[in-house]
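Our preliminary data section would be incomplete without showing what the modeling component actually yields. Below, a chain of 505 amino acids is followed by its predicted structure, encoded as tokens that our downstream tools consume directly.
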Amino acid sequence: MTPFLLGPVYQPPAGLLTSSVVNARNSDLAAKLNQVLQSGHSDFGDFEASTSSISITIVSTEHDEDAPFFDFHYSSPSLNHSAGGTDRVTKNSIYRIGSISKLITTYVLLVGYGWESWDHAVTRYVPELREAASSDYRRPIEDVYWDKVTIGALTSHLSGVGRDYANADLASQNFPWMEAGLPELSPHDIPHCAGNASLPPCNRQEYFQGVIQRHPVFSPWTTPVYSNLGFRILGYVLEALGNAPYSSLIQTKVLEPLGLTDTFATYPLNKGFWVIPAGNENDFVLIMVMRHHLYTKSGSVGQYSSQLMLLPDYGVALSVLVAGSSNGRVVTIATEMLLQSLIPVLENIALGEECANFCGTYESSQPNVNSSITIAADAAGLYLDRWINQGVDIKAVAQAYAAQTGSSPFNFARLQATNLRDPSVANHTAQGNRRVAYRLIFDTTSEDPNGPPRILDLNSHQWSATDSIMYGEIGVDDFVVHLDANGTAMMIEPRVVRDTLRRSG
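Predicted structure:
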């Protein structure tokens, strides 16, 4: 465990522009980059050679002149010059930045309007969501409580709303849903706009008509879940705050003050500097830890020390109060001993109860329908051991889809609680049971253990993958479990297949 506090350990290095060591390393790095890009082979994996252009610029904040101490550009032989773009990549070349624009959106909010609106509900600025929040019939598992979603929650990916609307919906793509075991959709459930390769982008009216139908992923402020949807809504919030189009606000609040003359909110008129890969510029599609969370507060005065701690994962709070000449050391040691002893026990109890309540097989109640789910558990938690729908192995379909789209295969499909549940006995269904929502988290294959060590964790993308694939506006990872009065699972709804399976063993 590191002995340092969070933050820098050393002073930042100076003189990088003139350092002979840095310059020698830069030359070696540039040569290796060229070799890798031309050959398509590297120690960390292979790729199709000479198909990607790249620009790398590294600057030091210690230099006022802002000159880069490493500036590397590689031009792919397959650059699409015929589409009006450049045929040679330089420091003036223009790339699309995708979701880095989320930073710029956040800068517009903070620079232009400060923190005053951070805790305001989004319904204050978006009338479509205000109307949705005014409904007398809202259900916490089905409906986003938009009046509980703040601008700060949207900005920090803590709103609990879905990743996208329609963009990755399988129903909006040329996808063989029947062969994949998915049910036929009504026309109402099929998106008619998306902004992907199959459908045009949604206008504002179309967008909100679809967004308000989407299920929440988590309750607000439960956990970070990457959301393009949230940032599009944030764009509408900014338009309301600034009484101007989003692109104009980016220009006046961020780009012009910083002198970013080669950065644009929309396509630049002069396409001569565009870096356009093989294909057509219109092919572009917008891109869109610690295991235990401890919340602590300590105190000390004279010969007294105290520690108050919350463990929300387990619904536990603890306090340590010490009086005496060694109070500081004692409170630290005692708290550490408590946590070392308590957390494994709580983990085992929680996992044991979870498996007792949920593990088993769930089957269709319809005769002659081969649909079932088997839930099991290991030391990490619940996982989907088997999922068959209409005779089709959905896990096998998911693996094939991952391979087809260039995604990593997965070892486990794990079920994670979302903090979304029916609020009280009064809201139980007609059968007397209550419902809790789960999301399927795909545990992807780790990198080769015999390969070189990596700084970037290849398996750290789960938060951005949640709710990323949909079918008929419902995430493929969206599950609802029906519990009896004792908290034991009776039924499970894999909502994407529009079916409910009953527990059989």
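Confidence is low (pLDDT under 50) at residues 279-291, 425-430. The longest strand covers residues 410-421. Preliminary results of this kind motivate Aim 1 of the renewal.
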